[in-house]
Structures are given as structure tokens and as C-alpha cells.
Design a protein that fits this description.
Elements: E1 2-7, H1 10-20, E2 27-32, E3 42-43, H2 51-60, E4 63-68, H3 71-75, H4 78-84, E5 89-90, H5 98-101, H6 103-113, E6 120-123, H7 126-134, E7 140-144, E8 153-156, H8 159-170, E9 181-185, E10 190-199, E11 203-205, E12 210-211, E13 214-216, E14 220-223, E15 228-231, H9 238-258, E16 264-274, E17 277-284, H10 291-298, H11 303-312, E18 326-334, E19 346-347, H12 350-353, E20 359-363, E21 366-369, E22 372-375, E23 379-387, H13 390-402, E24 409-410, H14 417-424
Parallel strand pairs: 1-2, 1-4, 2-3, 4-5
Antiparallel strand pairs: 6-9, 7-8, 7-9, 10-11, 10-16, 12-15, 13-14, 15-18, 16-17, 18-23, 18-24, 19-22, 20-23, 21-22
Helix pairs in contact: 1-10, 7-8
Bound molecules: adenosine monophosphate and glycine (GLY).
Length: 427
Amino acid sequence: MNVLLIGSGGREHALAWALSASPLLTKLYAAPGNAGIAELAECVALDAADHAAVLRFVAEAAIGFVVIGPEAPLVSGLSDALAVAGVKHFGPSKAASQLEGSKGFTKDLCREAGIPTGAYGRFKDAASAKAYLAAQPVPIVVKADGLAAGKGVVVATTRAEAEAAVDACFAGAFGAAGAEVVIEEFLDGEEASFFALCDGTTALALATAQDHKRVGDGDTGPNTGGMGAYSPAPVMTPAIVQRTMEEIIQPTVAAMAARGMPFKGVLFAGLMITAEGPKLIEYNVRFGDPETQVLMMRLTSDLLAAMLATADGVLDHFDLRWRSDAALTVVLAANGYPGPPVKGTEIRGLEVARMVAGVQIFHAGTRRDGDRIVADGGRVLNVTALGQTVAEAQARAYEAIAKIDWPGGFCRRDIGWRAVLREAAGE
Ligand code: AMP
Ligand code: GLY
């Protein structure tokens, strides 16, 4: 079957890599793709926001299955357009994508379904938001309701900071996404990323993972899309995974079905593992980036078959197999990130770096310029490695990074530190 993959990040390169290994695949197309994806797929210059153009291409290229990587096309209803045209696809409907598209929607659903999450309030004006704040302890979290590319969240340590975040939101700092504000209890604990394939009724957990959101070593500095990740995540013990499925994922799938908006795709729960157990921070309706890079390294089952089973609603007859090895990925970002990145700098040494045992290099923001690979985004490369332990995967990833010649970029030097410490302590 011919498959069209929508997206251009490191997540999509990892998905393309796993899809390419499927015996069910005839030809892979990617829109728009990147320089790394181009080695596995034919890249086409399609705008995913132009649903009619996507449908025309699907007909022309006899595409049998469309995999939607990023959230924006999901929230804007690309799945619905494909469904109307009878095109099989992986990714939830516009209605189900509200789980990511509206934080208030998700909080209300959690309250109704009894899903553990922080206490919260939803506000459409600054005065009522501030009145609520006055009665809350700090730290407290202020969020723009809608999609703000990961930037609409302020963890405020003082009430003045929280009030300033409310004012910034209503002053339009996040555009339409900030027309409503959610104020949320601060949850204390360790974060983990949890993924489950959902076919509308059945949920199937993927392997566990953890990412590093802050730009600096020691988890300091501003938030980013993710500077590195590893799998498995030691904090996600089998007991915590079971509680997450029973207390968070399954009730969500049931509540969405009951609302007439069944969730079909991959549900990504951002969790806080608190002293009382796992609590939901937020949902995303797509794979994580860079978590997908480590998950695809460990997956031994056929990804395309799993996605088809999700779309066909037959996950109850499906199973996923994983390598016992650990995987770790380090993000190489362009100087300036998470602010405006410097683009166009040349990257050398990738051919040598990828020869390190167990290493795969996934491209995120790269572009081919003649014979050269140049940086073309904030997060640029994901140097990913397998190892018997997280420590071994980490050593291999940094060994490969040492062979990459790219003065225009930087990376964190401590990806995986929590898991490596736990391994060293023999936990
Ligand atoms: P989000 O975009 O909702 O994932 O939030 C970005 C980051 O802010 C999360 O990864 C957490 O580190 C932090 N955060 C968000 N909500 C909370 C919360 N209720 N308690 C503690 N930290 C939070
Ligand atoms: N790594 C977090 C995300 O994909 O949103």
C-alpha cells in the first residue's frame, strides 16, 4: 500500500523509518518531509492546511493510508476531510482533537469522568481570573486554553507573576489561543510521557518514555519542545502504568466515546507522577517529539500494521513487541533555540557519526542544499542510540555527537541523567 506521512520533524523521520520496515508498504510519501526523510520517502510540497490539495494528491498517488504527525492538521480537521472522502488514516477527528486543542475541554472531561488531575478554573476575563487567583496558593500554573506551540504555560512562583501571565494572555500574547485562560493547581513530582494507541474503544499502551523539556543542563532554563528523551522511563513502574491505564487512559477513551467523539489515534498523556500516583497534566493527540524517536528504536512490531489496526478498530486483537534494550535520543538544536534559531549553517560529519554501533540519526529541521546538509529550524537533529542500559545508550549517542561538526548548534550534555543515576544505584 502507498502511504502518505504528514509532517517534517524528527518525530516524522522516526515514523518514516519504522513505516519503511513494514512489509505492507509499497511506497512512502512525506509532506513536506525533510532532508533525512527524503532518504526513505518521496517528499512532496503539500500544505497540510489545504485539505483539498491533500485529497487531490491522495487520489493522484493512489494513497491507501495517511498518517498525520503534528497536531495542527488534526485540530484543523484533516482527519474529517479524509474520512468524508473515504480515505483510511491515522489521527483523531477534529472533535476528538479538542483533547489537545482546548485545555479547558480536557479539564472538564477529567472532572466529569473522575480522572486525576490538578484542581482548576476556566476564565474568559482577567478580573474573574484574578479573583480566583487571590484564593489560591503559589506556585500556580496559568495556561492559554488553545494551541500555543508549547509556549502558553507559565508556572508562576508568585501571585504577581501569575497575574502578569493572565494579563499577557488576555492582551493577546498567544493570539486566539489565549482568549480563554485555565488556572491550574501546581502538581509536584516527576514528569513522564505516556502513549496509548486508541481505536475508539480499546487502548493499547506503548513502551514508557520520559523527555527533558528545559533547554539547559540539570533541567534549567526555558521550556522547549523537548531536548532529549529515553525509554523505558524507570518512574513508570508496571504498577504506575496499570494505574495510568485504568485511572486516566481508559476513562478518557470511554468518556470520548460517550460524547460521540471516539478517539482514534495515539493519545499522549503528559503525566506528573505525584506522591498520590499519576495525575494528568495535559493531553496531546499525536506522538511526542522526541519521545517517538526512542519508541521507534525499541519497537519490533510492524508500525504500519499497528496503525491500520487502530484505524480499523481492531486493537483488541493486536499486540506490540519491544526490544528489552534502552533507547536514548539527544536533540541538537540551532544556536538561539528556543528563541529564533540561526538557520542555514552547515552540518558535517553525519556519515561518520551514524556508523557508531546502535546509532540512528533522525533529522528534524534540516534541508539539503546541493551536497550540503544545512540547519533549517530550531530542533535540527536527534542523535538516537540503543544500548543494554540507558547509560550505554547515552554513551553511544554522545560518541556519535562528538563526530558531528556543527558549530551552529548545541545540545544538552546530561540527557537521561535521572535514569542513569537510578541504574548506578542499582534500582
Ligand atoms: P504543558 O504544555 O501543559 O505540558 O506544560 C508545559 C510544562 O509546564 C509541563 O511539561 C510541566 O513541566 C509544566 N506544567 C504544566 N502544568 C503543570 C502543573 N499543573 N503542575 C506542575 N507543572 C506543570
Ligand atoms: N516532547 C513533548 C511533545 O511532543 O509535546
